[in-house]
Amino acid sequence: MADVESKSPFSPYRADGKLYGFVCVVSGADQPVGQAIIAELATHGAACIYDSTLSLIDDILNTWGRLDVWVCSSGLLGPASITNTTPAELQKCFEANTYPPFFALKYAPPAMGKLCEKRNYPNAEVKDVRYGSIVVVGSVAGSYGGCWGPCYTMSSHAALGVVRSGVAVLKGTGVRINCISPGQIDIGVDLNNFDMRGMTSQFPPASLQSKEAQHSSIGLERAGLPMEVARVAGFLASGFSSYITGANLVVDGGASTMCPLTVPV
Fold first, then answer.
1. Residue 41's closest CA among 59, 60, 57, 25?
2. CA dihedral in degrees (257, 242, 112, 54; nearest 10)?
3. Residue 231 burial by Cβ neighbours in a 10 Å radius (0-12, 13-18, 19+)
4. pTM of the entire predicted model
């Protein structure tokens, strides 16, 4: 590791895990988890963080000369039952949950492979090593059934499929791709103002499950927080995770290990 660090001032393998010089894109910036991820990347020294738009890639390269991290954190729950799910809503869930990872896998790696000299902006660094990290924020519904409704489970499985297929796609590029699968996350919304059709939220309200049920079915006895998902995204963005690709990191407080047949989401 020390040899790798000494060869490049860019050093994606910094011993302190900092993201100095990194230019990042985060989708879902209007959602609590996306907001927490932006704050986490900024805390670790990222030079610039964009809200996700594919058309910005050329502008990013023209302005900053590089692209290092792409986080897909947008998503929709969809209706809780198949009876209430229309084909149009199913399509919207697939568009929200699987298209962003697919487009990131297709279009981000060539930009991440661009090398650049040090430019004149805060935290700027030379990039002379091909490096990139794509992080997909999915759900435990990508591995289990019975989490909310069928279209959420189906589209979450597909999002994880993008990550797993991406390992072979990215061979030789220096770009890694990984998934974060949160369980029950407290996004600060209660049942009184929650859209039960799931067409405006990424995760269901934690209050859908009582405190007593959380205590009995979750290993850490509580719902998670957006910042706890964001810290995993920061880890996967950094050189701390340099030998991790194709992984699915479950962030659910141990719920799926304790009760795999009744995963609370």
1. 25
2. 10
3. middle
4. 0.88
